[in-house]
Automatic annotation (TrEMBL):
Keywords: Membrane, Transmembrane, Transmembrane helix. It comes from Microvirga splendida. This is Neutral zinc metallopeptidase. The chain crosses the membrane at residues 21-41. It is a single-pass membrane protein. InterPro entries: Uncharacterised_pept_Zn_put. It comes from the Bacteria. The lineage of its organism: Bacteria, Pseudomonadati, Pseudomonadota, Alphaproteobacteria, Hyphomicrobiales.
Length: 287
């Protein structure tokens, strides 16, 4: 992936090495246990960890951490800032054109181990995530190492896909989709709430593809093999594949992100069409 000529974003905050500020929160032992329980039951571990953090006081009563602002000096930090900057350049143009909505740029926080977010405690075990309450993406860059070692799904464009997926959630938030879905999830069964979550996640996969489509059109950012990298990553983190690896069986009703086939197909849809409208998983007859 060619990213050297991307503009780096000024919306990056680097908290790596700072640890967790303030009281409350969960210990690492509790985080590990909740992670194992989540995978065993087919529940997204981030939901269990986040909920426990809120109960433990992780969502309030803490001093907001302030990290280093500006472009990080290490290569992976610069890569993240460049990809974020490129998503800003794409969505600042595409969203008004295709959805008649002005884009509001999100923040991105780099952390190591644990930090605080507007949605409670952020832990490396939760993986990258987007918090709509503070409109910020949180990521521990060790996740990229895990993608390579655990999932055999490394590469610049695979990592960029992960970042663009989280930014895709921000696009959903700007469009007003996330608040409506979260409200609806409070009114339905767990199975139905999971199905809504799958639609949200697959739409974010598709929106990541839309970003890549327009980035490549304008900056010729994709190189040979890049799309295959992202497809492998989408396949590796499908709910069915993760459940099969962790518990030896697949429980579709517990899916929260979509199957490998679904994630690959929706990412490809965004890549091919470059159209936000094509990513409307809530009106799609087939997920």
């Amino acid at each position: 992936m060619r990213w050297d000529n991307f503009r780096t974003s000024s919306n990056v905050e680097d908290r790596r090495g700072m640890g967790m500020a303030g009281g409350g929160g969960l210990g690492i032992g509790a985080i590990v246990i909740l992670g194992l329980v989540g995978w065993a039951l087919g529940i997204d571990p981030r939901l269990l960890i986040g909920g426990a953090e809120m109960i433990a006081g992780g969502g309030s009563g803490y001093q907001q951490q302030q990290g280093r602002q500006g472009t990080p000096q290490d290569e992976m930090g610069r890569f993240v800032a460049a990809v974020l900057g490129n998503t800003e350049d794409v969505w600042n143009t595409v969203l008004p054109q295709q959805a008649n909505r002005q884009y509001q740029e999100p923040k991105l926080v780099l952390f190591s181990g644990a930090t605080r977010s507007g949605c409670g405690g952020a832990q490396s075990a939760m993986g990258p995530f987007y918090c709509p309450l503070d409109q910020t993406v949180y990521i521990d860059l060790s996740f990229f190492e895990e993608m390579q070692s655990r999932f055999r799904a490394g590469g610049d464009f695979a990592y960029a896909y992960v970042l663009a997926h989280e930014v895709g959630h921000h696009v959903e938030n700007v469009l007003g989709i996330l608040p409506r879905v979260q409200e609806r999830q409070q009114q339905v069964s767990r199975t139905e709430a999971n199905q809504l979550s799958v639609r949200v996640e697959l739409m974010a996969d598709c929106l990541a593809g839309v970003w890549a489509h327009h980035s490549n059109q304008r900056w010729q950012s994709l190189e040979q093999g890049d799309i295959e990298e992202a497809i492998r990553a989408a396949e590796a983190i499908g709910d069915d594949r993760l459940q099969k690896q962790s518990q030896g069986r697949v429980v579709p009703d517990s899916f929260t992100h979509g199957s490998s086939e679904q994630r690959m197909r929706w990412l490809t849809t965004g890549l091919k069409t470059g159209q936000v409208q094509a990513c409307d998983t809530f009106r799609a007859s087939r997920l």
